[in-house]
Amino acid sequence: MKREFFITADGSTSIHLPDWNEQYHSKHGAIQEAYHVFIEAGLKKFSDMSTLSILEIGFGTGLNAFITFLESEKRNLTIRYTGVEAFPLKAEVHKKLNYVTQLNAITSEAVFAKMHDCSWEKQVKISKKFTLTKREQDFKDISAISAFDLIYFDAFGARVQPELWTEQIFKIMFRTLKLNGILVTYSAKGSVRRAMLSAGFFVEKLPGPIGKREMLRAIKKIDIKP
């Protein structure tokens, strides 16, 4: 599939897929969207924890993993990060992404490169307290049970891949979360919210990032055995 790089409104890079008329991040700002949805509404809800396991649905450009690493360094967090991606980008794509400079994270440039260059299907030690496992896998094939505290659900939108936003997928997400685990996503579609509710989640509507009125946060309040 053809991919075109472009600069979003906050100066950070993203990728446009002309065949789908879809992009990896909001045109209003890749970095601002990532921080608002996944850090502010997700990671920071676990401020009382020193160790965290995170699953990302749609590893993509590695932006969410990188900003999570930066936050973990600030807060001295130990993080086990798993990124699932059905269609991985080539490793050298990181050379065309400007996240390191836009985030004023030059001292961590080697970390971002390592996140892209490291092997798939293996747990890799990115730093003393941050491990990364990248899996090339369809989301429906995730089989972990009660394994993660937090899910970043960052799949392509329901307009182009509606099969990724169904009750079936959110039942898998529910199963893979620990009790009181959280799933956050940029989407606020009514059909997505209903699918989450049907899967067993308690669902909150939150103010969205710039350019979006709302987003969703889903919480596993009860433990339904598979």
List keywords for this structure.
226 residues, alpha/beta, Rossmann fold, 8-stranded mixed β-sheet, 3-stranded antiparallel β-sheet, 6 helices, 25% helix, globular
What does this structure look like?
This protein has one domain (4-219): 3-Layer(aba) Sandwich (Rossmann fold). Helix content is 25%, strand content 29%. The chain contains six helices and eleven strands. The strands form two sheets. The chain has an eight-stranded mixed β-sheet with strand order 6-7-5-4-8-9-11-10, sandwiched between helices. A three-stranded antiparallel β-sheet has the order 1-2-3, with no helix packed on it. The longest helix is centred in the first third of the chain and has 13 residues, at 63-75. The termini are far apart. The model has no long low-confidence stretch (mean pLDDT 95).
Q: Can you lay out the helices and strands and say which pair or pack?
A:
Blueprint (H helix, E strand, L loop, with lengths): L3 E4 L5 E5 L4 E2 L6 H11 L10 E7 L5 H13 L2 E8 L13 H4 L6 H9 L5 E5 L2 E7 L11 E6 L13 H10 E9 L4 H10 L2 E6 L6 E6 L7
Parallel strand pairs: 4-5, 4-8, 5-7, 8-9
Antiparallel strand pairs: 1-2, 2-3, 6-7, 9-11, 10-11
- Percent of residues in beta strands? 25-35%
Question: How many separate domains?
Answer: 1
* CATH class descriptor: Alpha Beta
Major beta-sheet overview: 8 strands, mixed
Count of helical regions: 6
Radius of gyration: 16 Å
| Series of secondary-structure elements, N-terminal to C-terminal | EEEHEHEHHEEEHEHEE
User: What proportion of the residues is helical, as a percent range?
Assistant: 25-40%
Strand line-up across the major sheet? 6-7-5-4-8-9-11-10
Q: What do we call the CATH homologous superfamily? A: Vaccinia Virus protein VP39
| N-to-C span | 36 Å
Class from secondary-structure proportions:
alpha/beta
Number of β-strand runs: 11
Question: Overall mean pLDDT score?
Answer: 95
Quaternary assembly: single chain
Unreliable stretches (pLDDT < 50, length at least 5) are none
